[in-house]
Predict the structure.
Amino acid sequence: MTTESFARLPQPPYYAVIFSSRRRPGDLGYQQMAERMVALAAGQPGFLGIESARGEDSFGITVSYWASEAAIAAWRIHAEHRIAQESGKADWYAHYEVRIACVERAYGKRA
Amino acid sequence: MTTESFARLPQPPYYAVIFSSRRRPGDLGYQQMAERMVALAAGQPGFLGIESARGEDSFGITVSYWASEAAIAAWRIHAEHRIAQESGKADWYAHYEVRIACVERAYGKRA
């Protein structure tokens, strides 16, 4: 991904989709589709930002941030995203968990 | 860490602390303290689970899950955890962001 690691977010409240996953071995079109999905999500109404990390053990966490639950629901049923979700289930992920959460407070520190 | 990658969580609602960070170069006691903090957190009242991923670019996401906001508040001011937080600010992290969220829905799939 060419995006910055940290999302630049407004003050809470806003919503988070926490996507934890273990990749299967092999690319099978994953990298290209992942980049396409980030670019596509970034153009959706209510998209606020995304952060992602994956270790060498193939376990990763991606958190996308949204202005509302309606924005999350619309992205979930987006036609091209649904095709990616099907490949995710069939080819890319051995296991995934999705948690939808409302962010109530936030703070941070930059050196 | 010796823990399983995926947290085994109850049905929502519960709380999540999303900790995004970029590590500085060098260990400086980080790995040992990180493992100690996971073990210590796991013994706290209201702790539900933890998931963590860090890529080769030094950007990582750790999400810890808690039964209540009170449990998060108690962990935040835990004496030994506070010492670790100070080292985190001074030595380990170039940048971190913390978001506290209430998980409202969850679903997943295991192959």
